[in-house]
Amino acid sequence: MHDLFVFGLSVFASLFAIINPIANVPIFMGVTSGASEASCRKVAKTATLTAFFIVLAFVLIGKYIFEFFGITIPAFKITGGLLLFYVGFELLQSKKSTIQNMSVPGSGTPDARPDFDESVAISPLAIPMLAGPGTIVAAMNYAAAHNYWYILEIVLILAFVLGLTYCAFIFSRYIYKFLGKDIILVLSKLMGLIVAILGTNMIIDGIKMVA
Length: 211
Fold this sequence. Notes:
The chain has helices at 2-19, 25-31, 37-69, 73-93, 122-130, 133-143, 148-170, 172-210. By secondary structure, the chain is mainly alpha-helical. The two termini are 30 Å apart.
């Protein structure tokens, strides 16, 4: 039971840092600029559900992908760690978000865009923002060489983190006003540092397995 708890904390920290609900608020506000509140809710729901099922598919069939291509777990850990480190490094290098000529999502029907394209829920929100390479690699790494109870825990934590992301999207304008651009930027860089460290740890684990 203790092992499951510690494992769950590690999975939550990793997925929360990579998906980064708060830091993605400005992006969501940007792509839904001028949309009605109903459209924003629909986009948020579609994006988070799509991301969940994409990552879930990789978690469930990742083992068979390994077997089919002859991929070893140490090789996956080292390659995945390098990828996670790169994702974290990119977050650390990110510049301050600028949202220009943007009306707040759901701010009123006069500014709502009747031609708003809700397909932004799939790309760029679900792919690659939420279910990007970093998320998929981290989820598959935790699922590798673990039994069904651990995999179930990964799926539940993934659903929880994406649920938090959905709430962050729904209340994006309030979060943005409350925290401000600077605090969101700091949080993004902090999450980037955590992701980079997780990537380094994966690389070390992979090297230890072949040493």
